[in-house]
Amino acid sequence: MVDETLKPPMPKDIKVDKTSLKYRLNLNQKFQIGVSYINVQDNFMPTDNGNIFGISGLYKFKPFFTGLAYYHSEYDDFQVEQVDYFIGKKSKKYKIKLIAKANFINDYSNKIFMPMSKAPEPDDQFLTFGIMGKYNLPKMFFGEIGIFKGERLFTVMENGLSVQHHPMKIDNSYSVSLGKKIKKLRYISLRIRNGDLVLFFKHHVGKTN
């Protein structure tokens, strides 16, 4: 059996840096649009120097909301197109959201390094379904839970603020977190994500709803 995957040489110093930006604008009380951008710097992965652009639209019909998001990921050897559809309900106490994510991988010229999994074929498609919930607790604490089922690869997550840039297919996943709002527009949370403990800090610039 011949291994046809492309394995890049191991650099002496592995450097990983991801920068993400997002801007949302309320057109009126019912419609909201948004744009996002992620830059990936990882000198050991084929996604190094990757750029991900996103656009989204949200429609509110209280207490419900629904919307679409589209993401284009541009890497050196391939591109990824992603479409998200979501619908949910929000109140002062809780928020729940159902999500469907469809990924399309295309236009790469060789098989990329795929640790622990088979490299994708051209025009591979992936479909993932998820449910996310948030509950506000006393004293500005909150709890969150997220469950995703279905195989995915190079998927944009967290409303365009993060991307799974490692060339590894991910099947069923979960996350549980407990956080506290520090001020109106920022918070800190402790997450358990697929068994890993993560300290997460988020800061918004400008007004959000």
Describe this structure in words.
This protein has 209 residues and is mainly β. The chain has one domain (21-203): Porin (Beta Barrel), CATH 2.40.160. The chain contains no helices and 13 strands. The chain has strands at 16-26, 31-42, 50-61, 64-74, 79-90, 94-106, 125-136, 141-149, 156-157, 162-163, 173-183, 186-193, 196-203. The protein has an eleven-stranded antiparallel β-sheet, with no helix packed on it. A hairpin with a 4-residue loop joins β7 (125-136) and β8.
Labels describing this entry:
209 residues, mainly beta, Porin, 0% helix, disordered N terminus
Quick one: how many beta strands? 13
The helix content, as a percent range, equals: under 10%
Strands of the biggest beta sheet: in what spatial order? Answer: 1-2-3-4-5-6-7-8-11-12-13
Estimate what percentage of residues fall within beta strands. over 45%
- SS class: mainly beta
Poorly predicted ranges (pLDDT <50, ≥5 residues)?
Answer: 1-6
Average pLDDT over all residues? 81
What is the CATH class?
Mainly Beta
Into how many domains do the coordinates divide?
Answer: 1
Largest sheet: 11 strands, antiparallel
> What is the chain-wise order of helices and strands?
EEEEEEEEEEEEE
The number of helical runs is 0
Q: Return the CATH architecture.
A: Beta Barrel
What fold name goes in the CATH topology slot? Porin
Radius of gyration: 18 Å
